[in-house]
């Protein structure tokens, strides 16, 4: 019964078959004033998400992944400045929406799942209250209908004895259960897009696998767009349709998961992949790859390639000009590196750090 | 380095014999306090030169066990021996000279009001026996060894990156040349690029200084890379122990299987595995009867709900599961 109201049709561009565009982000920029100047946290990020697609944004902490998601949700801190050439959810321009219209879209047409469910659930209200609230806020439904849908979704996300859970408070649930409640809450209005920011980082590996399994299943079944932010390349490989590798506020590489993992073209992506031990592939006791140095400060303007300071292939030209995204080794595969072809051919020699 | 293998007259560097630890947990003002069995009858031994990987989910008792092994928490029952001597007979400082910890969060495990030099030097001062100049020289030598520039000597932890802080914690652990280090999730709080640097450092230090590690981690890929032997903990008990190769070739315990299935290797197209664990989360306050894993076990048998399994010796280790108990299986079949 409740399944019928899982999808809400009729909004935006409607259903155009398989490749319906849900989210378009073009030249997104986020700047934050800090005591030392302006922190350019997101510097011209572009990507899109189609219906039924999972886009993973991956990178180290401080690369601008979370701020990108918060910018889409319009949940940035008030002092942050957001600009974008295009920011569209199902064809409607999010940059032109009034605050009220944005509040209507949030939770309704797009919803976010955060890393730490305890900070996003209100400890003073019951699970049932918070779940029902999500629907009552956006839809003209009775409390009974809202309750039915809450029970249906709790059951759907694998919570046993769902009806009896409604009266419980967040602190009475384990971390894994709380994250399931968060997912159920995000699904209450049947959104077209879900943004999940490190949804399993705080959880145990077995629970992580369960939650990701559930997210992937729901995403397929409900044909939603899913943006999943993570630092874990293992998760990306297993769940992503397409991948955005972010580094220092920019897209370093973007492409299908198959392309990025088969032919990682950016030295940063290659470095990240070399860092992780893989059972059966890395030999025990061997040294793992490393990326020396730290993510550069994003305060003020930066010249040249942002990764040049840590890159084993960096040459003088990398530091001189602004590096743009160019066509990578596969179709629909872009990489922000002027030497990626040389590196792929194995011509590029690791360059000893040229002293400035 | 002396080999731990062979006919084994070697004394284990660290040994736990049937160790338990319970806590009394308050349930509110008017309810009786309950007993929580955090660690329940654990036996393990670590030979010199080994790296024992201890895996299990949060709340299974890994850290409680580590604290007992470090002599920071007395066991409620059982005995811990360090280098063949019962830990109770050793002075706190003698234990510290042999075994040192490295904790998960380098943000909370370093005193923010002490400089890097003072933090690393503290164990030297506690043990006594060297003057300020010698201490400084030894601290600087150790800083170099763990890859910290000497220029950071007078800096404070807040001025360091996460990776540098973890290097400070490692330097502090090693300054007294202990024989063993207990690493409790040493890289979980770090980015992957920093994690690999710390893991490489731990490997180098182990080789160069002949160290023995107990590595506690929930990341099985890290354990596979570092450990020579694996122990799987579930709700206060070690349910499986095996050589690393043997474990990763095929765990014997269904929980070990689920753990291994949960490792998400960066191989696109494989999807997210189904762990078959169900949503019954373990609660140490309401310990299930019989096998503690049975509410989540995909291969549960009727007697698993009532009869606790006994450890069954298997090649290079043991497993605590009725599936491997031939007598039980015959009984069930009959």
Quick summary of this structure?
Chain A contains 13 helices and 13 strands. Chain A has 356 residues and is α/β, with parallel strands linked by helices.
Give a description of the structure.
The complex is a heterodimer of chains A (356) and B (334). By secondary structure, chain A is an alpha/beta fold. In chain A, 32% of the residues lie in helices and 21% in strands. Chain A has two domains: 2-240, Rossmann fold (3-Layer(aba) Sandwich), CATH 3.40.50.300; 250-345, no CATH class. Chain A has helices spanning 65-73, 99-105, 117-120, 127-138, 143-156, 162-165, 175-187, 205-222, 233-239, 257-262, 267-275, 316-320, 340-345; strands at 21-34, 37-50, 54-58, 81-83, 86-89, 92-93, 110-113, 193-197, 225-230, 242-247, 250-256, 326-327, 334-335. In chain A, the strands form two sheets. In chain A, strands 7-8-9-3-10-11-13-12 form an eight-stranded mixed sheet, sandwiched between helices. In chain A, helix 8 (205-222) links the parallel strand 8 and strand 9 (225-230). Chain A starts with 20 loop residues before the first strand and ends in an 11-residue tail after the last helix. Chain B is an alpha/beta fold. Chain B has a domain at 250-265 and 288-334. In chain B, strand 9 (229-234) and strand 10 form a beta hairpin. In chain B, helix 3 packs parallel to helix 5 (162-174). At the A-B interface, helix 7, helix 8, helix 9, helix 10 and helix 11 of A face helix 6, helix 7 and helix 9 of B.
**What's the average pLDDT of chain A?**
88
H/E topology pattern of chain A: EEEHEEEHEHHHHHEHEHEEHHHEEH
Shape of chain B: globular
The average pLDDT score of chain B comes to: 89
Radius of gyration of chain B: 21 Å
Domain count of chain A: the total is: 2
What is the SS-derived class of chain A?
alpha/beta
Helix percentage of chain A: 25-40%
Q: Please, what is the CATH homologous superfamily of the largest domain in chain A?
A: P-loop containing nucleotide triphosphate hydrolases
Please bin the fraction of helical residues of chain B: 25-40%
Structural class of chain B: alpha/beta
Q: Identify the biggest protein-protein contact and residues per side.
A: A-B, 54 and 43 residues
Order of helices and strands of chain B: EEEHEEHEHHHEHEHEEHHEEH
Biggest sheet descriptor of chain B: 8 strands, mixed
Our measurement of the CA-to-CA distance between the termini of chain B, rounded to an integer number of angstroms, reads 52 Å
The total of beta strands of chain B comes to 12
pLDDT < 50 runs, ≥5 residues of chain B: 1-7
CATH architecture of the largest domain in chain A: 3-Layer(aba) Sandwich
Rg of chain A, nearest Å: 21 Å
């Amino acid at each position: 019964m409740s399944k019928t109201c899982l999808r809400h049709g009729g909004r935006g561009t409607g259903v155009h078959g398989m490749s319906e565009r849900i989210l378009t982000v073009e030249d997104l920029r986020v700047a934050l004033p800090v005591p030392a100047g302006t922190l350019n946290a997101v510097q011209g990020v572009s990507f899109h998400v189609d219906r039924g697609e999972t886009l993973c944004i991956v990178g180290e902490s401080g690369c601008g992944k979370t701020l990108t998601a918060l910018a889409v949700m319009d949940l940035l801190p008030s002092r942050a400045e957001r600009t974008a050439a295009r920011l569209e959810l199902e064809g409607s321009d999010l940059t032109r929406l009034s605050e009220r219209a944005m509040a209507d879209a949030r939770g309704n047409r797009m919803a976010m799942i955060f890393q730490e469910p305890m900070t996003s659930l209100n400890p003073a209200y019951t699970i049932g209250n918070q779940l029902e609230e999500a629907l009552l806020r956006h839809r003209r439904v009775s409390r009974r209908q809202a309750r039915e849908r809450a029970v249906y979704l709790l059951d759907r996300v694998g919570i046993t004895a769902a009806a009896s859970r409604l009266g419980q408070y967040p602190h009475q649930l384990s971390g894994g259960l709380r994250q399931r409640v968060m997912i159920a809450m995000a699904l209450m209005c049947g959104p077209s897009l879900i943004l999940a920011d490190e949804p399993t980082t705080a959880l145990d590996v077995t629970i992580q696998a369960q939650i990701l399994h559930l997210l992937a299943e729901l995403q397929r079944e409900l044909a939603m767009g899913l943006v999943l932010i993570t630092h874990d390349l293992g998760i990306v490989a297993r769940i992503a349709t397409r991948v955005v590798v972010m580094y220092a506020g920019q897209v370093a590489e973007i492409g299908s998961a198959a392309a990025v993992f088969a032919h990682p073209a950016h030295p940063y992506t290659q470095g990240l992949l070399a860092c992780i031990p893989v059972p059966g592939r890395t030999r025990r006791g061997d040294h793992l790859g490393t990326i020396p140095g730290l993510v550069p400060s994003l305060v003020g303007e930066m010249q040249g390639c942002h990764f040049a300071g840590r890159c084993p292939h960096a040459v003088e030209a990398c530091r001189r000009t602004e590096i743009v995204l160019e066509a990578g080794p596969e179709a629909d595969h872009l990489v922000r590196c002027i030497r990626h072809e040389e590196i792929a051919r194995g011509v590029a020699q690791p360059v000893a750090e040229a002293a400035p | 380095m002396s080999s731990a293998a062979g006919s084994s007259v070697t004394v284990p560097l660290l040994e736990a014999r049937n160790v338990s630890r319970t806590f009394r947990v308050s349930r509110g003002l008017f309810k009786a306090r309950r007993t929580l069995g955090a660690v329940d009858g654990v036996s393990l031994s670590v030979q010199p030169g080994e790296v024992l990987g201890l895996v299990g989910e949060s709340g299974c008792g890994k850290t409680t066990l580590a604290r007992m092994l470090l002599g920071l928490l007395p066991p409620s029952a059982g005995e811990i021996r360090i280098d063949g001597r019962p830990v109770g007979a050793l002075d706190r400082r003698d234990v510290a000279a042999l075994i040192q910890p490295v904790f998960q969060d380098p943000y909370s495990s370093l005193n923010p009001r002490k400089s890097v030099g003072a933090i690393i030097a503290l164990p030297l001062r506690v043990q006594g026996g060297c003057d300020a100049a010698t201490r400084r020289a030894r601290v600087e030598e150790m800083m170099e060894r763990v890859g910290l520039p000497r220029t950071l000597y007078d800096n404070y932890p807040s001025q360091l990156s996460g990776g540098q802080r973890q290097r400070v914690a490692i330097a502090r652990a090693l300054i007294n040349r202990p024989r063993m280090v207990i690493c409790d999730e040493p890289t979980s709080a770090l980015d992957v690029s920093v994690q690999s640097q710390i893991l490489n450092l731990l490997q180098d230090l182990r080789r160069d200084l002949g160290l023995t590690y107990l590595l506690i981690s929930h990341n099985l890929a890290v354990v596979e890379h570092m450990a020579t032997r694996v122990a799987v903990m579930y709700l206060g008990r070690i349910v499986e122990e095996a050589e690393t190769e043997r474990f990763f070739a095929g765990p014997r315990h269904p929980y070990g299987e689920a753990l291994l299935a949960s490792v998400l290797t960066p191989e696109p197209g494989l999807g997210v595995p189904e762990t078959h664990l169900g949503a019954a989360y373990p609660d140490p306050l309401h310990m299930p009867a019989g096998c503690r894993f049975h509410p989540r076990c995909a291969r549960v048998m009727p007697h698993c709900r009532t009869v606790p399994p006994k450890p069954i010796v298997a090649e290079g280790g043991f497993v605590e599961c009725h599936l491997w108990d031939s007598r039980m299986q015959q009984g069930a079949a009959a």
